[in-house]
Amino acid sequence: MKMTVLTLFPEMFTGVFNTSILGQAQRKGAVSFDVVNFRDYSTNKHSRVDDYPYGGGGGMVLTPQPLFDAVEAHRIDEDGASKPRVILLCPQGEPFNQRKAEELADEEHLIFLCGHYEGYDERVREHLVTDEISLGDFVLTGGELGAMVIADSVTRLLPGALGNEMSAVTDSHSTGLLEHPHYTRPAEYRGMGVPQVLLSGHHERIERWRREESLRRTYERRPDLLDKLDLNEDDRIYLDKLREEQR
């Protein structure tokens, strides 16, 4: 996959894209990152990318020209066939979640638009972007942090990005449930032990324990997620048991 980030502050991405999992994924060839300063595409003699809003009001608005030209310069690959998803980072957008990350991970090219100031000229929204995404009901100073979060979330789903391909499959939210607890050596630490089932070597019992612990953790912390799941009979019996315990 290719990810192109259009930003006024490309230096913010240097450490994020070149270290840890993202750096490894890039070196393995699972993903490539291209960070572009869209100010370079401004035709204004002072390289301005913003202006006062029509109708008055506080703040400055990003003008359409630099963003349109920057996207158009990067949306076509060498074969002339690329049709990237153009993602606008915006507090008005669709809330980002694991399902969206999985959807984006199937694409070949993502372009992120990272705005600043008061907002974007509306023509950018209407005629340039394919997705508007928000990290939550709060406002940041710009779209850069949002682009980093989405890039990280999507990259770890790409083939070859992680050392263990099953890690992403069993993550919280990937299965619809919160992830089960994890333990490692030593088996006892300061009087605190590891559940015996994990030491038993009985894989079927271990998998059932993990499933039940995921159900328990989801029931206690995010019960709203259970309404969206297709639960089997054993799951429903276990959840009924949890409900009885709390009465």
Task: Summarize the model shown.
Helices cover 36% and strands 17% of the residues. The chain is α/β, with parallel strands linked by helices and 247 residues long.
Offer a few descriptive terms.
247 residues, 10 strands, Trp Operon Repressor, Chain A, 2 domains, Alpha/beta knot
What features would you describe in this structure?
With 247 residues, the chain is an alpha/beta fold. It has 2 domains: 154 residues, Alpha/beta knot (3-Layer(aba) Sandwich); 76 residues, Orthogonal Bundle (Trp Operon Repressor, Chain A), CATH 1.10.1270.20. 36% of the residues lie in helices and 17% in strands. The strands form 3 sheets. Strands 2-1-6-5-8 form a 5-stranded parallel beta sheet, with helices on both faces. A hairpin with a 2-residue loop joins strand 9 and strand 10. The longest helix is centred in the last third of the chain and has 19 residues. The radius of gyration is 23 Å and the shape is elongated. The mean pLDDT is 93.
Task: Map the helices and strands.
Layout lengths: L1 E6 L6 H5 L1 H9 L3 E6 L12 E2 L9 E2 L1 H11 L10 E11 L2 H7 L4 E5 L5 E2 L1 H6 L3 E4 L9 H12 L10 H4 L18 E2 L2 E2 L2 H4 L3 H19 L11 H13 L2
Parallel strand pairs: 1-2, 1-6, 4-7, 5-6, 5-8
Antiparallel strand pairs: 3-4, 9-10
Helix pairs in contact: 9-10
The CATH topology of the largest domain comes to Alpha/beta knot
The low-confidence parts are none
The profile of the biggest β sheet is: 5 strands, parallel
**What is the C-level CATH assignment of the largest domain?**
Alpha Beta
Number of domains: 2
**Would you identify the CATH H-level superfamily of the largest domain?**
SPOUT methyltransferase, trefoil knot domain
Strand order of the largest sheet: 2-1-6-5-8
Number of H/I helices: 10
Oligomer description: single chain
Element-level helix/strand string: EHHEEEHEHEEHEHHEEHHH
Strand content: 15-25%
Distance between the termini: 50 Å
**Architecture (CATH level 2) name of the largest domain:** 3-Layer(aba) Sandwich
Overall pLDDT confidence: 93
Morphology call: elongated
**Class of secondary structure makeup:** alpha/beta
